[in-house]
Amino acid sequence: MNLSTRRPASRLATRTPAASGSNGERNSVVLGPNDRLVGQLFIEGDLRVSGTVDGELEATGDIEITGRVNGAVTAYNRLVVGSGGSLIGSDVRVARLTVEDGATLTGKISMGSAAVPSPKAVEPGPVPVVVEATPVVVKPEPAKPQAAKPEPVKLQAAKPEPVKPQPVKQQTVKPIQQKGKRR
Amino acid sequence: MDVQEAVAEGTASADNGEIKRDGKKQFSMSPGDILEGRLIYDGSVHADGRVEGEVRVTGNIDVANGATVKALLEGANVTLKGAVEGPVTARDKLTLGRNARLSGDIQVRRLQIDDGATLNGNVRMGEFEHQASGQ
Questions:
Q1: pTM listed for this prediction
Q2: In which domain, by residue range, is B59 found?
Q3: How far, rounded to the nearest angstrom, does the alpha carbon of residue A84 sit from its chain's CA centroid?
């Protein structure tokens, strides 16, 4: 690449992925040996720096430094400082860190899930929906035993039906005749 | 160097004690050993078990996998494979193995961190060329 003399950082970042598109799966940005970046750079994907960076770097994937970086570095996944790489970072936050023998590393190192923010972990939000459904589940519980009881009741009521009408007719007829005779 | 006196200061219960290897002394600990105090030693130290306090050696320091160290460590080459809490100074090289967990500021001339190691602290490199060459 011959982008070292160009100042705007955004042009460097947007042009390089097209050149390194052979990686396929994840977005990857490469700053070549003659490239230089001054400012801030945020990448959704991997970042490889073999040039010079004066500023802040942040990538959601891996960052590999084989060049020179002066500034804060945040790698949501893994930071690799190669044997010829130099990282003079005031604040280095990474999930995983590999430093090869011969590399230069200076700064405050913070590792682990607590050091690196994980925006993807905040996304799953259907959890509160389940909480709202809990009172609804409580109500149908008493309704189920009620619905189960009437079933045997109907069967019992169906059997006495032929038995009941006979005594009812006899009882109703008798008192009417008796009352009518007395009166 | 008052090595013998310095060793007596520590409450090391290492059974192996000193081992001479190629004419260089090595203070070797086993997994069940406990060292509490201050150890200044003319040789190398293999730390295992539990170490608390301060360890300064002219040779190398090797912290075994499974060891628990809460101490200041200073040596020529320092290799960590266990858990260490405290400042570490390596006049030549500090190596963090894949199972190493270091929480503390480090001052080294060369640094190697294997994938899987954990480091939390400030890192300073350089400034040891004259001391390292003088030994």
A1: 0.66
A2: 3-133
A3: 37
